[in-house]
Amino acid sequence: MNPLQSLVMQKEQFEEAIKRIMERDGRFEREAFFFLKEALDYTVQDESVKSAENSKHVSASQLLYGFRDLGLKEFGPMAATLFDEWGITGCVDIGDMVFLLIQEGVFGKQDNDRQEDFVEVFTFENAFVRPFLPEVRGRLK
Q1: Crossing angle of the two packed helices 30-45 and 60-75, in degrees rounded to 10
Q2: Of the candidates 35, 34, 38, 29, which has an alpha carbon nearest to the alpha carbon of residue 86?
């Protein structure tokens, strides 16, 4: 099998896994899973993650910050609105999606990985809303 065929097969397997997840758990939109996969790929490419002891494994907080950074880069001030439409309103939702993909065998897991590692590492308000609010200088009278 050539690399292109392998890539097509991986995409088809990912789509099938998402379809199965959505049939049993409809909290998240299809696009949310595809963005999460992009965020994982983006995070793995980060030099600070590459230089870590186990470069093939991404921690919950590394993935969350990669998700945040890619979301801001791709969607800017619309990130919070778009994620909300996809059913993602906090870090815990990203963790839920990760563990749904782990159950499908799409993402790998180490023994010390826990869903609790995704609990509010940051707030979506601080990550996706506040950076775009105007700075208020002084108090209004």
Answers
A1: 110
A2: 29
Rounded Cα gap, residues 131 and 122, in angstroms: 13
Token pair of 11 as six digits: 């995409």
pLDDT digits (tens, 9 = 90+) for 79-134: 999 999 999 999 999 999 999 999 999 998 888 999 999 998 999 999 999 999 98
pTM for this model (two decimals): 0.85
What tokens does 18 get? 């998402």
Helix then strand count (H, E) for the chain reads: 7, 0
Task: Tell me if 95 sits within 8 A of 140, measured CB to CB.
Answer: no
Pairwise CA distance, residues 129 & 72, whole Å: 10
Closest by CA to 63, choosing from 3, 107, 111, 19, is 107
Instruction: Write down the pLDDT at residue 55.
Output: 58
